[in-house]
Amino acid sequence: MFFLLLLLANSPCEVVQDLNPNSPTYDMVDWLTLDADLRATSHLESEPIADPKNYVEYTLVTQDSITYLKTPQGDTWDKMILDDLSIWSFRTETHWFTPQSFTQWRSVGQVLSSPRFAHAGFPGMRWVNCVSYYGAHDGCNLPVHYGGLGNVIHELWGPYDYQPGWGDISGPILKLVYYYDCTGFLPETCDTAEVTWMHQRYGQFSWREYKRAGSDWVLTQSPPITVYVHPGVINQYFPCDFEMK
Q1: 34-93: pLDDT as tens digits
Q2: Taking the complete model, does pTM exceed 0.85, yes or no?
Q3: What are phi and psi of 170, to 5 degrees?
Q4: CA pair distance 44, 19, nearest whole angstrom
Q5: Sign of torsion, CA 112 30 65 240?
Q6: Cβ(114)–Cβ(108) under 8 Å?
Q7: How far is C-alpha 209 from the chain's CA centre?
Q8: pLDDT band per the 50, 70, 90 thresholds, residue 117
Q9: How far apart are CA 89 and CA 134, in angstroms?
Q10: Can you say how many angstroms the Cα of residue 123 is from the centroid of all Cα atoms in its chain?
């Protein structure tokens, strides 16, 4: 019993570890979203368009949420919830172009996507969520099943220099690494990693997925990384009449 209590007391669950406290502070809302003047008239498009996924990226920003729209129809999205100190993961599509089907964490405040203000580095900050229960919705109904992703680990890395050939993207970039299906508190205990690249002006602009293969990570999804600003805003299409917030 004493060992169990000691283990729980030393657990990094729900704790943000600042591994590089002397680095600059980044406003993560600024880095995750298109700047206000851009999103008033424009969106991002990836080229070449070999796959409809990641065809566009447009962010809707309110006082308490960020919504990423990934298709011209606005029917495929991710949503985050904001407060003064934190950015919380909330909802994502189950299938592209099918807005009636989505997964949603069981409660707001369950999985931290990022501190509102964070330090980067190699890595800069790491945080672990040990409760990752979600509901899978279909047809705007109550969840058809529930699941979990084991421990969830995030790390913030950077800054990195931009790479020539990335379209309109230039200047420093950060990456947010999202590990899940983890059995412990470090990335080497995880089965899946998603990497999101961010720019202070253009926000989230590209994404990668990796799967664990022994001691290595294998790239499994790699949308185009050449990104351009195009005119036109995108409206969200979410036909379900509840938020469950």
Answers
A1: 999 999 999 998 876 556 566 688 999 999 999 999 998 999 999 999 999 999 999 999
A2: yes
A3: -155, 155
A4: 32
A5: negative
A6: no
A7: 12
A8: very high
A9: 11
A10: 17
